[in-house]
Amino acid sequence: MKKVLITGVTGQDGAYLSKFLIEKGYEVYGAFRRVSNLHLDKLELLGVADKIKLVPFELLEFTNIYRTIEKIQPDEVYHLGAQSFVQLSFEEPIFTADVTAIGTCRILEAIRAINPEIKFYQASSSEMFGNVLTSPQNEMTPFCPRSPYAISKLFGHWMTLNYRDSYGIFACSGILFNHESPLRGLEFVTRKITRSVARIKLGLQDHVQLGNLDSKRDWGYAPEYTEAMWLMLQRDKPDDYVIATGENHSVREFVEEAFRQAGISLSWTGEGVEEQGLDVKTGKTLVSIDPQFYRPAEVHALMGDYSKAKNTLGWSPKTTFKELVGIMVDHDLMFAKKSKRY
């Protein structure tokens, strides 16, 4: 039985990847921060919490990383752990860099010292592309990161390539574009939208406040993206791959589709921070703009070209944008009905 270590196991991707690998017959070790409250809700929702061997793992501490990997001797390491909230990275840039950038280097160095045969997956991000001049973006598109988070991810991305070239480690970077699900954290705009729509539909909330409605992202379904991670480590040679849908949609489109899935039509009035989304039937304001949710440096539009993943890994997205929004809205409606505190 193969052994795998997953950092960030309690997050969206960690939970879906754990379920996927358990079903593949892996022995799964899930890394969590000892100093944090251990939230297993995502793993419990997928029915795998009791099937994972949880191990304390601190990305800021090399000794802990080294000893954990040395003890487990995993066949594969999937590095998903990070300070992954872009907005927070502007407020905590040094912490973000230490965890997200140097944390990746610490794991790679431990693998190099313990056993270079361990396969390594790095969770890179489409945010590394930043202000792009060409679209769609592929593996050869130049990077221009626009946040401390994106810069930290780019460090980890290049470090992964460096350890691959310098030490022969089977190290892959998955440049994943935005991928969502009902397990997405509430701090992310997509989940904030679908949860708010569900609560508004049920009369538990009056409206939702958002930032830039015109930012465009390439949104896919998270469980499909975790399968792509595994496929990368099953190849004969390591490489880097863009994982995306090849479409992009604005935050405004996401909002409109989420309300539509809940049976509510929106109309828009005003401009800039004065813009509002109104219920077509009642005229009530359901969406308003709050400048605090704007980023100091905005990334306006991202869209990925997944041709390499399709041709080499046999991977393609299956869930459409409307289906994705519907999955998330249905989930949040179900949970909001169960608990008024949701």
- Terminal CA distance: 40 Å
Q: Report the portion of residues in β strands.
A: 15-25%
* Net shape: globular
Q: Give the total of domains.
A: 2
Structural class: alpha/beta
Largest sheet: 7 strands, parallel
Can you tell me the CATH superfamily of the largest domain? NAD(P)-binding Rossmann-like Domain
Order of helices and strands: EHEHEHEHHEHEEHEEEHEEHEEEHH
Q: Regions with pLDDT < 50 over 5+ consecutive residues?
A: none
Q: What is the number of strand segments?
A: 15
CATH secondary-structure class of the largest domain = Alpha Beta
Supply the number of helical segments: 11
Would you kindly provide a brief summary of this structure?
The protein has helices at residues 12-23, 41-45, 62-72, 86-91, 93-114, 148-167, 189-201, 222-233, 251-261, 307-313, 321-338, and strands spanning 3-7, 27-32, 53-56, 76-79, 119-125, 171-176, 179-180, 208-210, 216-217, 220-221, 240-243, 249-250, 266-269, 276-279, 285-289. It is built from eleven helices and 15 strands. It has two domains: 3-179 and 220-243, NAD(P)-binding Rossmann-like Domain (Rossmann fold), CATH 3.40.50.720; 185-217 and 249-300 and 319-338, Alpha-Beta Complex (UDP-galactose 4-epimerase, domain 1).
